[in-house]
Amino acid sequence: MLLIEKAEIFFSSGLNVFTGETGSGKSIIFDCLDFVMGNKTRRSLLKENEKRGEVTVEFGIDGMSDVVDFISELSIPVLETLIVRRVEFSDGRKKSYINDINCTTEILKSLGEKIIEFVDQKNNSKILRKQNHINLLDDFCSNKKKINELKQIWSKLNGHKEKLSNLIKLKNKSLEELEFKKKSFLELKKLNLMPGEFEELEIKRKTLKSSNKIIEYLKESYDLITQNETNKNITTSIIKLEKISELLSKNKLLDESIDGLNLIINNLDEAERNIQELLKNFSYGDMSLEDIEDRLFEIKGLSRKHNVFADELISLKTELEKDLHEFDNFDEEIKSINEDLLETENNYDNIANLISNIRKEKSEQLSKIVNHELSHLKMDGIKFLINCNEKKEKTIIGKDEIVFLMRNNNLAVQDLEKIASGGELSRILLAIKVSLAKKTEGLTLIFDEIDRGIGGATAESVGERLSILSKTEQILLITHSPQVAAKANKHWKVSKKISEDGFPISFTRELDEDNKKKELARMISGKVVTKEAIAAAEKLMP
User: Fold this and answer.
1) Which pLDDT value is given to residue 439?
2) How far apart are the first and last CA of the chain?
3) How are beta strands 490-498 and 504-510 bridged, if at all?
4) What pLDDT was estimated at residue 423?
């Protein structure tokens, strides 16, 4: 990529420093990190005449639950380390990968925000984004537990509001339909349709249409059985045959005759009862054919009106009754939800007010700490301020609007990015970062020439602050200051040479203690390294 043909760099925790002469290609390393995390770079990083270039970076993610959750939600396998790779092609195309799974640039940028912060870049620095100021202050306040509690109340609050809104909409809609439903229910109630009644009436109607002739035949049959004294005559005959049986004992023909006549009597009795039942069934009580047809007409009319089958009218009546009952309960339910809403709003206000008070108190404390750090960085004319205002609307993290501001030598208060630039901005951000140390999540922080335009005691103070910050954060840094470089846990020197084909090539070399001393001496005295410079370098080294 650009001047770097191939490089493999193993960063350590703590402070990682790059030094080298101007133009050696130090910034290209950070440009590559910027590129691999999906950010827009100032230029194409591909070397001339190359078809493709690739940058791969590997992160340890132990304890970084937000990163693990992020990639898990994307169905990207979680490994022991996180490997991010990005490729640029000569035709301008770029491809991005997370643990060898292809991803979009936006996903890569979102992931990068959780891992790396380019502290002195206005587009990428978390501190310069106003929307992050409240989160940074809450980290300083140790408000995480209270904020989580507030978020739960906020979710409950929105749940009540949504339920209330839906209930009111439903009530208004039901109000429009109320009269129709009342009228329909009363009609169905008056109809009083019984289960199976419609089918039974249809059968009766069909039967009654041909019932007159059937009834006539049934009555004639009944009369023939009952009016001709058939049963009486057969009974008399049985009595006489039984008297003969007393005279002729064990006569088979006689016994069979008596049994046959008894069977006839039983069958006649049963036939008489059956015909009576049939006559009863065909009479249908007091309902005439006209009555049945009127009842069916009424049932079918309501079926057409409500566009349901006749046998569904009963369930429709039950449904209408339920709807009317629910409507009667609307006001009571709305009142209950309003009471819950009021209680939840009071809980929200109590927690939000507590958080607001903590923020106001801690903002003064943080301002003092940052201003103290700024004085150590020889920036006495600059004052750091935190503006705490109440928002018009409640939010998931409270009622406050938090903005970090700066004032330069009694001039008007301005936003951070408007008051400073370059090395000055980096030192202001460093002061804030040091003040927030141990309160924020561990990120890899990248500073590009934070010591630009300073030296002596100021540079020494910058180095000390970076050393403090590196105890909780991994820091990557380009510096021209020997006072800063001397604090490094790992030190690389970037050099440039001309290749055989006439192209400049940058290469990095990790320095041991002896070479680190030589590099510090070079930074102190220039090309010609003197004994005094060596002695000064030894004095700077821890």
Assistant:
1) 61
2) 35
3) antiparallel
4) 61
Let me know: does 65 contact 442? Beta carbons within 8 Å. Answer: no
Contact yes or no for 285/197 (Cβ under 8 A): no
Instruction: Give 288-303 as a DSSP string.
Output: -HHHHHHHHHHHHHHH
- Please give the pLDDT value at position 420: 56
CB 533 within 8 A of CB 521: yes
The helix/strand/coil state of 408 is: strand
Q: Where are the alpha helices (DSSP H) in 415-526?
A: 416-419, 422-436, 456-469, 482-485, 513-525
Residue 1's pLDDT is 52
Query: What does each C-alpha distance from 314 to 183, 188, 301 come to in angstroms?
Result: 15, 8, 14
- Output the six-digit token pair for 6: 């191939």
pLDDT at 488: 92
Which pLDDT value is given to residue 417? 66
pLDDT digits (tens, 9 = 90+) for 406-439: 888 877 888 876 765 556 777 888 888 888 876 6
Whole-Å CA distances, 126 to 114, 265, 374, 415, 433: 10, 110, 19, 14, 10
How do residues 324-343 score in pLDDT, each as one tens digit? 776 667 778 888 899 999 99
Single pTM value for the model: 0.64
3-state secondary structure of 81: strand
Burial class (CB in 10 A: 0-12, 13-18, 19+), 436: buried
Give 400's strand partners. Answer: 390
What whole-number distance in Å separates Cα of residue 424 and Cα of residue 378?
10
Please name every residue paired with 404 in a beta bridge, in sequence order, or none if there are none.
386
Which amino acid is residue 355, in one-letter code?
A: I
User: In angstroms, what CA-CA distances link 382 with 194, 264, 431?
Assistant: 89, 128, 12
Task: From residue 346, give the alpha-carbon distance in Å to each of 92, 101, 123, 148.
Answer: 56, 47, 39, 17
| In contact, 55 and 31? CB cutoff 8 Å | no
Q: Which of 40, 51, 42, 46 is nearest to 3 (CA)?
A: 46
Distance CA 336, CA 331 (A): 9
Q: Which residues are within 8 A (CB) of 362 and not within 5 positions of it... i.e. 6 or more apart?
A: 137, 140, 141
Residues 6+ away with beta carbon under 8 Å from 319: none
CB of 488 closer than 8 Å to CB of 469: no
Q: What are 448's strand-pairing partners? A: 478
Query: How many whole angstroms separate alpha carbon 401 and alpha carbon 191?
Result: 65
Q: At 377, list the tokens.
A: 């960085």
The helix/strand/coil state of 126 is: coil
- Asked if residue 37 lies in contact with residue 84, where contact means CB atoms within 8 angstroms, the answer is yes
Which stretches of the chain score pLDDT less than 50?
Answer: none
CB 495 within 8 A of CB 511: no
In this predicted structure, what is the pLDDT of residue 161?
Answer: 93
